[in-house]
Amino acid sequence: MKNNKIQFILGAIALLVLPLILQSFGNAWVRIADLALLYVLLALGLNIVVGFAGLLDLGYVAFYAVGAYMLGLMASPHLAETFEGFKAMFPNGLHTSIWLVIPLAALLAAIAGMILGFPVLKLRGDYLAIVTLGFGEIIRIFMLNLDQPVNITNGPKGLGQIDSIKIFGFDFGKPLEIAGHTISSVTLYYYLFLLLVVASVVICYRLQDSRIGRAWMAIREDEIAAKAMGINTRNLKLMAFGMGATFGGVSGAMFAGFQGFVSPESFSLMESIMIVAMVVLGGLGHIPGVILGAVLLSALPEVLRYVAGPLQQMTDGRLDASILRQLLIAVAMIVVMLLRPRGLWPAPEHGKSAIQKD
Questions:
Q1: Which of 121, 140, 180, 347 is an S-S bond match for 286, by CB 3.0 to 4.6 Å?
Q2: What is the pLDDT of residues 79-91, one digit of tens each?
Q3: pLDDT at 355
Q4: What are phi and psi of 171, to 5 degrees?
Q5: Beta strands 181-183; 170-171: pairing state
Q6: Phi-psi bin for 325: left (phi > 0), alpha (psi -120 to 50), beta?
Q7: Cβ atoms 45, 242 nearer than 8 A
Q8: Region 193-207: what's the mean pLDDT?
Q9: What confidence category does residue 349 fall into, taking pLDDT thresholds of 50, 70 and 90?
Q10: Are the C-beta atoms of 53 and 219 separated by less than 8 Å?
Q11: How far apart are CA 54 and CA 282, in angstroms?
Q12: What's the rounded Cα separation, in Å, for the pair 333 and 326?
């Protein structure tokens, strides 16, 4: 017990010091850590749907987009520049407080999740994956084309000039001076995202150990048996979609405030596939494994930039560096899944499988 406390304290100190160390190598490395934390939030949300309830969702990035565009519309001058009536009421644009935007983003994403859940309640496996994939693409296409006849999302140009995150008057978009040392805005965002990740981990553990979490796992293992035991599978599936989507909506709002710009390109099908890969690669249904998978898969493309460049030079520039990076990521994922089919950090086995293994 004492060793666990020491490990926890050392881990907490390492996480707090990490951005300060990375900042000495350049803000780009801190930015990678920031995006990794956002992907951890997304992976934790998808783990509720896929890992806990066993519902394969390939359109999860749609909820990410909903949250991002919610903040983009409510914290940028776009609506005032587009609609004259709106400009008359808000000449400088609608710069809504983050305390209002975040709950709205979470609520809207949860509603979108339940809207997705209603038509797919009786679908399983491949059929469920195809429908959710289509839902994700529909949302992206809407964002891409809702600039005509009424310009709502600004189409492929995206939404810019989005306000940075401000909490109690503190602006995370501006550097902070402390005792002659400058802490960059990306480092400040790191601590904000880390706080959200810690809160999300606590929520996920509480859900996992609750009656709802156990019911989700019963549905995942055998839906027919769960229904026979009196579990309301319809409501619990909808709750899983809604709860998982909430994480996506909050992550999207944070992403929009962090970037200051959103466009449909950030919410492609590849993003959904990568988030699913994070959950599966780390360990389906195991929270520490999901976090590990999210960190590795979000940071790996950036690290492989330093490998893809020299390999491109060896081929006299015949291979594009970005394509080569994707190839290296795919090879790494194949190797890991062959060697560790249950993930890098799978959930401990229980019941019959554990007894047979012993």
A1: 347
A2: 888 888 878 888 7
A3: 46
A4: -95, 115
A5: unpaired
A6: alpha
A7: no
A8: 95
A9: low
A10: yes
A11: 16
A12: 11
Instruction: Tell me the residue type at 260.
Output: G
For residues 237 and 305, the model is more confident at 237
Sign of CA dihedral 267, 270, 272, 277: negative
Question: CA 273, CA 252: separation in Å to the nearest integer?
Answer: 17
Position of tokens 């903040």?
A: 71
pLDDT band at 319, cuts 50/70/90? low
Cβ distance 238 to 118 under 8 Å?
Answer: yes
Q: Rounded to 5 degrees, what are φ and ψ at 268?
A: -80, 170
Q: What's the Rg (C-alpha) of the chain?
A: 21
Q: Which pLDDT band holds residue 117 (cuts at 50, 70, 90)? A: confident
Q: Report how far residue 43's alpha carbon sits from residue 293's, in angstroms, rounded to the nearest whole number.
A: 9
**Identity of the amino acid at 165:** I
- What's the CA gap between 38 and 257, in Å, rounded? 12
The answer to whether the CB of 42 falls within 8 A of the CB of 294 is: yes
- pLDDT-derived band at 180 (thresholds 50, 70, 90) equals confident
CA-CA-CA-CA dihedral for 142, 148, 152, 156, to nearest 10: 60
What is the band of 203 on the pLDDT scale with cuts at 50, 70, 90? very high
- Terminal CA-to-CA distance of the chain, rounded, Å? 26
Listed in sequence order, the DSSP H helices in the chain are: 2-25, 27-47, 61-74, 78-82, 84-89, 98-117, 125-145, 185-208, 211-221, 223-228, 233-259, 269-282, 287-303, 305-314, 321-339, 351-357
Q: What is the pLDDT of residues 42-78, one digit of tens each?
A: 999 999 999 999 998 889 999 999 999 999 998 988 8
Q: Which two tokens stand for residue 100?
A: 């209002």
Q: Residue 251: which of 76, 11, 32, 62 has the closest Cα?
A: 62
